[in-house]
Amino acid sequence: PGEAAPLLAAGGILSLGNSRLAWVPVYGYSLAGVFRVYGLRAGMGSDAARNGGTMSQVCGLRAVFFDFGGVLAEEGFRQALIDIAGEAGRDPAEIVPTAYEMAWTTRFVVGGCDEAGFWRAFRKATGITADDAHLTEVVLSRFVPRPYMFALVDAVRDLGLKTAILSDQTEWLARLDAKHDVFSHFDQVFNSYHHGTSKREAAFFELALGAMDVTAGESLFIDDAAHNTELAARLGFKTLLYRDRESFFAELADLCPPLGAR
């Protein structure tokens, strides 16, 4: 979605020993070059795997799990709450934690209520009187997809790895998919809202591993919340904590050079 952004540093060439991979604008590097350098076979992609072929491994990985808000897209919920507080002349330092608490106490995040129930609880707790439609639109508009992350997802799939979203989200994720064509980039989507469990619990990770038919040890989990990556690491995942674009791709390159950029 949106305009493609390069993954590599200025100059468009990634040096790996005596090999050089040419930059192509969509993915940031030549996948054909990656296949040559790392001895991978073209045709080992995820389409072949989904049709019964052998799933390839890259850097010991068979699957990559991505969080949505804060990784694939800007963290829209938090930014929306800051903006909603500003519209109402309220202190975001008060409104933001209150709203997060409401999301969990109403069990909105795990499908315990719909958006109407969440916004009722939010209005009661904060005194903010805006209607559901306005509040929801503010939230949805702040989840801005990051083109460079979707380029990475597509490159991961083209290398033959499985990809999935593993996110503590709500019914809003499907609306964001309808607007931005999110789901087509992934083999599966695990949304806490539809599973009755969240990344606060090992069960959600185990559910996703089983559905993807991979083990934690051959999976990478990317999230912007340290408590989520810490739990995933305890379960045996390789993990990356997303802080910003530059440090993320540097750390990804250290973990698995075909997927990152130095």
What's this model, at a glance?
This protein is an alpha/beta fold. It has 2 domains: 41-73 and 145-259, Rossmann fold (3-Layer(aba) Sandwich); 76-142. The chain has helices at residues 31-38, 46-50, 76-87, 92-105, 115-126, 132-142, 147-158, 172-180, 192-195, 202-212, 226-234, 245-255, and strands at 13-16, 19-22, 63-66, 162-167, 188-191, 219-223, 238-241.
What does this structure look like?
The protein is an alpha/beta fold and 262 residues long. It folds into two domains: 41-73 and 145-259, Rossmann fold; 76-142. It is built from twelve helices and seven strands. The protein has helices at residues 31-38, 46-50, 76-87, 92-105, 115-126, 132-142, 147-158, 172-180, 192-195, 202-212, 226-234, 245-255, and strands spanning 13-16, 19-22, 63-66, 162-167, 188-191, 219-223, 238-241. The strands form two sheets. Strands 5-4-3-6-7 form a five-stranded parallel β-sheet, with helices on both faces. Strands 1-2 form a two-stranded antiparallel ribbon. Helix 11 links the parallel strand 6 and strand 7. Helix 3 crosses helix 6 and helix 4 packs across helix 5. The model is unreliable at 1-54 (pLDDT under 50).
**What can be said about the biggest beta sheet?**
5 strands, parallel
**Beta fraction of the residues?**
5-15%
- Architecture per CATH nomenclature, i.e. the level-2 architecture of the largest domain: 3-Layer(aba) Sandwich
Helix content: 40-55%
Tally of separate helices: 12
CATH level-four homologous superfamily name of the largest domain: HAD superfamily/HAD-like
Oligomer: single chain
Low-confidence stretches: 1-54
